[in-house]
Specification:
The complex is a heterodimer of chains A (about 375) and B (about 260). Chain A is of the alpha/beta class. Chain A contains 13 helices and nine strands. Chain A has an eight-stranded parallel β-barrel with strand order 1-2-3-4-5-6-7-8, surrounded by five helices. Chain A is globular and about 60 Å long. With about 260 residues, chain B is α/β, with parallel strands linked by helices. In chain B, helix 1 runs parallel beside helix 9. Chain B starts with 6 loop residues before the first strand and ends in a 24-residue tail after the last helix. Classes of the chains: A alpha/beta (about 375), B alpha/beta (about 260). Chains A and B meet through helix 4 of A and helix 3 of B.
């Protein structure tokens, strides 16, 4: 089943721990200091649910020690929702009937201005799969334009070649986010029904190409719920470890998107409830204390407020998941996913400050970006 | 070093031997109060946290109002060229000649790159900066950095944010023994007693950030560090008694020797 998953990422050896660890196994894992797959497996196991409060306390201490009492902020910006892809779970898939839109240069600038006025200094530019409407050149030019507004530009789009990633970095991009969606190859093939995204190996290898090209950071993630979440969490952990070993001068971030049932009528086969999601986040924090953990507005306000600073160190807010959504919310009514935390900045900041957390817009400077050399 | 009344960095003198880092605080207000409570006259601030366009997100503005000496740091740089560029911009924006050279190519553990740190420090010292390099506790590198004109060296006590204290104590002692410039332990300190220990050892100063910012009460902890640094400095100047683990042996090993004891 896992023939396409390279040995260094294959979680098979640890699956039995992750499925059948006992409470005492989890306690022992919590007291061992060196992070290993076995420790991570015990912490994501169902038995760890009984020790969730202790894991949360430890996660908070580790987050505070490394990231302080701050939450870094970013905003996603959808450039285009044209997509030739056939992802069964995605609101932008080619067989969805909604009208499509791509931002022109002028529209893009208006979105940048709207985000800049809100205070954002880090933006994540998104497109669908590579399409004639939103190809590499379009994306590269958008990055270059955005770099005149913001301190940090990152991109979440389609897998590219090393040369393209290099060009993107030269345009001012400092990081690329690319979720494998699921690491489980059979499920991956059944969910990606057509299009270039069917190439599992090309996607799996893309984060390496990102870092080979000299990009500062790569963002990893699995879309939790579309496949066995334990398998995916373990493979994701192994993927992050492998990249850190190979690219010691690069940064990794990890996100925790959880699929929602309502997208295109898609019903996820696995339930990841809030306690399960929290367990996965805490396991990552405890086993990777120095990696930024990211949470988007897919999650609701109560969950986000609770987990901010308790594992999670970077968050988006006031997000629009429609193309052109910051300037004209009605231009394209259906977003890629439903925003479950639709608070404005000030409401969110008040919640963070009540918890003793400082929201930080600017935590980077263009002076460090390759595009300025 | 460490016996002079004041901390001398590049010809400028400071009463306080506690430097405070300004990241990681729960609010600018808490940061400002903590700095005041610490009595620090030098604070480090990351260029990446300068935000000229949005005062509510900016660290430079509120710190500049304190009337103390700012030390911009180059955190985010992964090589000498980037650090030099950042230092230039930091000087332009802050008006301070001080720079903390901080080059950590690995953004996770934040360990300083010795080769790039050496190169950047050499260039910046030539450019007239008062250079304070953050470095591993390496006695050879410390002398190399002194030789190229650094105003102090800043060996780490342990990893940034780890709270593991002075785990490099033996190396720091070696650095102090041979150093002609102040040695400032930076990173890893958790408790005021560790800061006192560093001062007793002969450090010229200590730099504390996480231990204050992540304390239960950051302002009270800043005051505690101030007292500890003063106590450690005073103890060093008073001269610690000789430490000895040896007891008087009941069966002397030298009794077989002929001749009378002098």
């Amino acid at each position: 089943m896992t023939t396409e998953l390279p040995e260094e990422l294959d979680p098979s050896l640890w699956l039995s721990i992750a499925r059948s660890a006992t409470e005492s196994d989890v306690r022992r894992a919590l007291t061992t200091s060196s992070p290993t797959e076995a420790k991570f497996a015990a912490l994501v196991s169902p038995a760890a649910d009984h020790l969730l409060e202790g894991m949360a306390q430890l996660a908070k201490r580790l987050t505070e020690g490394h990231f302080g009492r701050t939450i870094s902020l970013y905003a996603p910006l959808y450039l285009s929702d044209y997509c030739p892809g056939g992802c069964a779970y995605c609101g932008f898939a080619a067989d969805r009937t909604q009208p499509r839109h791509r931002l022109s240069r002028d529209e893009m600038m208006r979105e940048f201005e709207a985000l800049k006025a809100m205070g954002f200094e880090e933006i994540l530019l998104l497109t669908g799969e590579r399409s004639p409407q939103a190809d590499f050149a379009y994306l590269r030019d958008a990055v270059a334009e955005a770099a005149t507004y913001f301190s940090a530009i990152t991109v979440e789009a389609f897998p590219m070649t090393t040369a393209e990633y290099h060009e993107l970095a030269a345009a001012g991009c400092v990081g690329v986010t690319l979720y494998q969606e699921t690491y489980e190859p059979v499920q991956y093939h059944s969910l990606h029904r057509w299009g270039p995204k069917r190439d599992y190996a090309n996607r799996l290898d893309a984060p390496s190409r990102v870092l080979e090209a000299g990009m500062r950071t790569v963002g990893l993630g699995a879309l939790l719920g579309i496949s066995d979440p334990i398998f995916d969490a373990l493979a994701l952990y192994r993927h992050a470890r492998a990249l850190r070993r190979k690219f010691w001068q690069s940064g990794i971030t990890i996100s925790f998107p959880r699929v929602c049932p309502q997208e295109g009528g898609y019903q996820p086969p696995f339930l990841v409830d809030e306690r399960f999601l929290a367990r996965i986040i805490f396991a990552f924090r405890i086993c990777m204390p120095d990696v930024p953990l990211v949470l988007s507005t897919r999650e609701n306000a109560k969950f986000r407020d609770g987990i901010a600073g308790v594992g999670v160190s970077k968050m988006s807010i006031a997000s629009r998941t429609t193309v052109g959504g910051y300037r004209e919310p009605t231009l394209s009514p259906d977003g890629q996913f439903q925003v479950n935390d639709d608070r404005d900045l000030e409401t969110f900041f008040t919640a963070l400050r009540t918890k003793g957390l400082e929201p930080v817009f600017k935590n980077w400077d263009r002076v460090y970006s390759r595009g300025d050399e | 070093m460490g016996n002079e009344k004041k901390l001398n960095l590049g010809g400028q003198e400071f009463e306080s031997r506690l430097l405070v880092g300004t990241g990681k605080f729960s609010s600018v207000a808490v940061m400002i109060e903590a700095i005041k409570a610490s009595g620090a006259q030098l604070v480090t601030v990351a260029l990446r946290r300068f935000n000229r366009e949005r005062p509510s997100d900016d660290l430079l503005g509120p710190l500049a109002k304190l009337g103390i000496t700012l030390v911009p740091n180059t955190s985010g740089a992964r090589n000498a060229a980037e650090a030099v560029r950042a230092a230039m911009l930091g000087r332009e924006l802050s008006g301070s000649r001080f720079v903390k050279v901080e080059i950590h190519p690995n953004p996770h553990h934040l360990m300083p790159d010795p080769l790039e740190t050496f190169e950047a420090s050499k260039q910046l010292a030539k450019e007239g900066f008062i250079v304070l390099p953050y470095m591993s506790a390496d006695p050879v590198l410390a002398k190399r950095l002194e030789d190229v004109g650094c105003a102090a060296v800043m060996p780490l006590g342990s990893a940034i944010g780890s709270g593991h204290g002075l785990s490099t104590a033996a190396m720091v002692r070696m650095i102090i023994a041979d150093s002609g410039i102040p040695v400032i332990v930076d990173a890893g300190l958790r408790a005021p007693s560790e800061a006192a220990a560093a001062m007793e050892m002969g450090c010229g100063a200590v730099l504390v950030n996480s231990a204050i910012a992540a304390a239960g009460d950051p302002v009270a902890m800043a005051a505690a560090f101030a007292v500890a640094v003063k106590a450690g400095t005073a103890a060093r100047q008073a001269g610690l008694m000789t430490q000895s683990d040896t007891a008087v042996a009941t069966s002397p090993l030298t009794s077989f020797l002929s001749g009378n004891q002098a």
